[in-house]
Amino acid sequence: MNKTYLSYLLAASVALLCHTQVKAQDSTRSSYHLFKPMPKSLERKEMETDRPNVTETPHTVDAGHFQYETDMFRHQRENTEESKQRRWLYNQANLKLGLLKNTALQVIVQSYNKESVTDLATGQKQTGSGFGDLIVRVKQCLYGNYNGNFSIALLPYVKIPTNRYSDHQKYEEGLLVPMLIKLPHDWKIGLQVEGSYLRDDDQPARHIEALQSVVISHVLFKKLEVFGESFYTFNFKEHKMNNFLDAALEYEITRDVKVDAGLNYGLQKTVQKEYFVGLAFRY
């Protein structure tokens, strides 16, 4: 028996042992679902949220439990060569429900939006407001939902154009792949790749867009988490890349309630800038 064979055998044995241990640990949660909620003793000690960054968590809501995450207020502004755009969003809420141990349903509701577009050439201003769009998503954690220092998930979505104040009445869909690496001393690194089929801003058509992000976070004073993020988007139709830098703070009021604030800042002059204040709680 040569050394190479021994190395492969040892590696396979370690992998099998780790898999068996994870299965044994996970079996305590596998029997819970939407109609049989996971007990408090098995819930996550720390509430995991998909905010306040673009990079989302691969972790799902505990089976049979509900989590509410919202932009209480978000302001977006974008200046192009032709127009000046402003948008205000109030209570853009992500309603999350744990279906199974590793599966959760999400419905994002844009409760009230207000937007204005000013034509720079003519000075003409168009405004609109009202109930926004609906986004339906399903998160499936593939690995590391409750154990280990690495986790990954799939998060497909479809955006339903339910608003009636905008001319953009196109469906949008895509797939997110969020990942998380936990490091010692309360440091974390989040990664995300995304592919989406989105509406064009200036014509009744759609395009493919890719996104890639990385975020680093650290917990201070046991309650305050600080985030620094960078991401880019690439429009395959226009062959155009946009770059962003983000920063956010998240404060844990209680084990089940968090508030946050931050900004997403487009580095190019004509790229969108955003400022927000948010809230999350679970039940």
Write the layout of secondary structure elements.
Elements: H1 3-30, E1 66-79, E2 83-100, E3 103-119, E4 125-130, E5 134-143, E6 150-160, E7 172-183, E8 187-199, E9 206-220, E10 224-235, E11 240-254, E12 257-266, E13 273-282
Antiparallel strand pairs: 1-2, 1-13, 2-3, 3-4, 3-5, 5-6, 6-7, 7-8, 8-9, 9-10, 10-11, 11-12, 12-13
Structure explained in plain terms:
The structure is a single chain. By secondary structure, the chain is mostly beta strands. The protein has a single domain (28-282), classed as monomeric porin ompg (Porin, Beta Barrel). The chain has one helix at 3-30; strands at 66-79, 83-100, 103-119, 125-130, 134-143, 150-160, 172-183, 187-199, 206-220, 224-235, 240-254, 257-266, 273-282. It has a twelve-stranded antiparallel barrel with strand order 1-2-3-5-6-7-8-9-10-11-12-13. The longest helix has 28 residues, at 3-30.
Query: Would you identify the CATH architecture?
Result: Beta Barrel
String of helices and strands: HEEEEEEEEEEEEE
* Category from helices, strands and their pairing: mainly beta
> Domains counted in the coordinates: how many?
1
Write a brief caption for the model.
This protein is mainly β and 283 residues long. The chain has one helix spanning 3-30; strands spanning 66-79, 83-100, 103-119, 125-130, 134-143, 150-160, 172-183, 187-199, 206-220, 224-235, 240-254, 257-266, 273-282.
Brief descriptors of the model:
283 residues, Porin, 13 strands, 58% strand
